[in-house]
Amino acid sequence: MDCRAFRENHVGFVDDVLPAIDMEAMHRHLRSCGRCARHDLAVRRGLLIVRNLPPIEPSADFMSKLSERIAELQSTGAMEPAAAYRLTTGGFAALAAGLTLFAYATLEAKNHFGAPETLTLPPVVATAPASPAPPLSAPAYMAAISTGMPLWPAVLMADEAPRQMANVELQQAALR
């Protein structure tokens, strides 16, 4: 998983609503990527702070004050949507310049990041080592060879050891 996929799925990861395989991939990426781990920590700390905030309780006369203010704004015409969103010549010029800048930046980014560069490495020439490695001595060579003894008999014997000890004690008690 890459950082982009991690951040796209992070909300589901925090809410624990992703499938188990995706959750495991997110956990693996979190352990291997310090940047995403810091992001996850910041988000979780922020959520912890917000969840522990005391509830906001408005004053008793809040609704009456709000209703008075809305009535005052309606009577003065300040709530008229056409007056609030009138586009002036300067605003139009600023909007056009912003859109042009956005289009230019998009095209430049496409040209800059569009085609990946081909990676070329310098040629490598293999040479023989200056001096041969010393041969292994016979005891070291023999110690390095696997004995071929399987591990299962030892594990089974260790598992059954307490029962065998108990059986020995029971057998000795029965012989008395």
Describe this structure in words.
The chain is mostly helical and 176 residues long. The chain has a domain at 3-51. 67% of the residues lie in helices and 0% in strands. The chain has helices spanning 3-8, 10-15, 20-32, 34-51, 62-76, 81-84, 89-113, 138-144, 152-175. Helix 3 (20-32) packs across helix 4 (34-51). The chain is flat, with a radius of gyration of 37 Å.
Instruction: Kindly estimate the percentage of residues that lie in beta strands according to DSSP.
Output: under 5%
Give the overall shape, derived from the CA principal axes.
flat
Order of helices and strands: HHHHHHHHH
**Distance between the amino and carboxyl termini:** 68 Å
Mean pLDDT over the residues = 77
> Nearest-angstrom radius of gyration?
37 Å
Helix count from the secondary structure assignment? 9
Main structural class: mainly alpha
Low-confidence runs of at least 5 consecutive residues: none
Question: In brief, what are we looking at here?
Answer:
This protein has a domain at 3-51. The protein has 9 helices and no strands.
From the structure above, extract its key features.
single chain, mainly alpha, flat, 176 residues
List the helices and strands and how they pair.
Layout: H1 3-8, H2 10-15, H3 20-32, H4 34-51, H5 62-76, H6 81-84, H7 89-113, H8 138-144, H9 152-175
